[in-house]
Amino acid sequence: METLAALAHGFAVALTPMNLLWSALGVTVGTAIGVLPGIGPALTVALLLPITYDLDPTAAFIMFGGIYYGAMYGGSTTAILLNTPGESGSIVTAIDGHEMARQGRGAQALAIAAIGSFVAGTIATLALTFVAPALVKLALLFGPAEYFALMVLALTTVTAVLGDSLVRGLASLFFGLALGLVGIDLQTGQARFTLGIPELLDGIDTVVVAVGLFAIGETLYNAARFRFETEEIYALEGSIWMSREDWARSWKPWLRGTLLGFPIGALPAGGSEIPTFLSYLVEKRLAKKPEEFGKGAIEAVAGPEAANNASVAGTLAPLLSLGLPTSATAAIMLAAFQQYGLQPGPLLFDSNPELVWGMIASLYIGNLLLLILNLPMAGVWVKLLAIPRPWLYGGILVFATLGAYTLNNNVVDLVILWLIGVLGFAMRVLDVPIAPCVVGLILGPLAEQQFRRALAISQGDPSVFLTHPLSLTLLIVAALLVAGPVILRRRARRAEREAAAA
């Protein structure tokens, strides 16, 4: 009952005229961004961080939540009509969705994706409503040692799962941790690594780093890869309304995709890519006509698109209740919390219930707004692809530069922004994951504080991290996540050598 009462309060917050406006703006911007290939929700939220600096936190996060959901919706439009996924979670949708468009069923494919996204998003948000408070009760058992272990787990999971190479992930993480050391030590009052620059005494602004890595670096990378080729867009033909057969073949994949997307999105190794691929495999295994897969199967659009959108709510559950980011967008939203001096976790539910429950309630509203936006206006969103990409990328770079400067009105931030941006471009070229750097910058100083606090309470005894069962469990899980992939790869290589020798 407490959860329902809190949700009702959240709806009272989200249904105010201004917050409704921010929600509508968020889902509209998110959908538009999702349609544009190569520009995802992480880049968009990073780009808007400087602009929302003076905005009310509740309104800002209602808009960010709308952007996150909207980008997942919009990514399916280009995946189906252009065979170019606007978001990584739409890669699987493109396989059969584009085939449907080539067969003149693009309108039906978009309807299946939009309604499936609405169904999955609503069910997953309902799950978030009840799962997040349960995780908060668990987090209330945490002391300094447990919080340090949790942050170690967060650092290692993002490092291990958001890249193909553990070494590259660790390199990105340690770079972020190094950036987090710049500034005045909160316990001793000594300046660290400021190079005599007064503007660095308060540390390197998280927003500047996030905008540099995601907006500047990502845009430079996309511009460098851009080819001036004519892209064939399949026009929408026929009615957008689904037939009775379409409904019959879609509703079960929608539910199965939701059941896969939410829990996997909440896991440290989650994200949207894994549940969408799993959903595709499950639907192909259960299909009455598996030979249709790859040739325009309805189930291959319905299931993965539902899993894609359900994973968003799954990602928000550990972020809000534990401060644990499991995706790049979640890492940027963590930076947004820090921008407002907030730390996601159990205290956030007590100190800022309007923000947490207002954001959760706005996700229900945003889902409905997205259904209204996407079904009748699919043709309008496709016209965004006519924007010349040089103009688009140039606008993003100018927008990011001006936004970063307005944070503190000093040139040092601009120098750091572009140095970090060029480094972010190099990281993308070398396939170094970017999210661990941002998470290291945010969680590094917090982990250091909890580490020192735990040692102060135990009078310098480091075994405090091993004698507390919860802390020990979290550290063991973190160690397994780092060592596990290495051990599995070595076993696979050994098995290959033995097979070759045999």
UniProtKB/TrEMBL annotation:
Q: Where are the transmembrane segments?
A: 33-53, 60-82, 109-131, 138-160, 166-184, 355-378, 390-407, 463-488
Which keywords appear in this protein's UniProt record, sorted alphabetically?
Answer: Membrane, Transmembrane, Transmembrane helix
Using the record's annotation, list all stretches that form the DUF112 domain.
20-438
Q: Which Pfam families match?
A: TctA (PF01970)
- Name recorded for this polypeptide: Tripartite tricarboxylate transporter permease
